[in-house]
Design goal:
The chain has about 400 residues and is of the alpha+beta class. The chain is built from eleven helices and twelve strands.
Amino acid sequence: MISAHQYQQESNNGKIVWCHTAKIDAIPPESTLSTDIYSDRTSFGLSGLEFYRSAYLRWGEASTTAAYLSWDRSQCAGHFERVVCGSRLFFVSRPKREDNTQFLYDPAIISTHESNDIVSQHWDIEAVIVPAGSDIYIRPFTPYASVSLESSVSHGAYFIPCAMIERVIVGLYQSWANTGEQYSYHVGIEHASRAILFTWRDKFVSDTIDQNEHIPDLETPEGVRQLFCLCGYRELVNICSQDSYESDDFSQGLSIHDRRGFIHGRQVSRGLLRWFFGNFALEGSQDSLKEVYFKYLAAVVKCMLGQQRKYGTGGITSERMEEFVSLTFGGSPEFMEPYQSNEVTPSYGGQLDGTIVRLPASDRLTNWHETHDDGATAEDRIWVAAQMKAMREKNDGV
């Protein structure tokens, strides 16, 4: 039984009761937009949402007339909502700029909870009435607001589409840099991203999964960016976790359960990247794909730290985040060199200059398996050493 997390949010004239639960049959399982559901079932052999691992991505909501939810984009993933009874009015935004991709990566106009002035300056707004029996899909990392036109009940879900996974991950970075806080649906996204990573690994390495809309095409720049984005997030997940910063002496911090999951995710991610670097090449560029990846990762970390310094409102300082960056990558010259270079500018977006080609079969790497890397960072090893020291001191005192 998965316990539901409940809270009330009051507006000027109405109230909302909202709860997390995996029991709600919200987004259609066959949806081509929900790579998280597809991956969870593919990777773990699960069937039925009652077994869905990420309960925080499923929710129910009951609201009274005039209950209002203000502009919010911190959820990062796509927003699906089915109005079971009553009716709701949504205000959904879209960028005024023609270049939507660059707009996404601009931290100067991003905040977790947008004000009406910011929204009106940078977004066009569409009003959508959703009556009982109707669904609404809102793409990832998009500000929206809603008001209940009458007392209503809704079932909803956050979803992660493969084609927009960059929007989801960049949204996580933006939200973390601005607030230094980790919300419940961020935990759900972390769990789901791990399942997606396992599915991609099973497809690319063992080819046990058919190519479909949930699998990136690694012979295109878009597909490679999706791979780099997800693997980069798995590498940075300790840095983007609120629990990591609970103590200075590593006596607390991440739970052993979360830490093991993060380490396993990095192990799979590093193995998948090793396979990719050994099977594909970048023609028309002086950099190898491996160099491009670490430049991309360094640019993301620089951008996140720069955004935190300028716009961060949370209790975690940029100095503390920089400390964790050093602990995470201090032993990796492949990362530290571009990170410390002035030639790599802060950016949440990555560019691939050249053509992705698959190497001839005789040149491909076969000895790639992730067991070559345990997935731990320097910070993980320091934590383990601190726990072992505490255990020895406890035993000595007995």
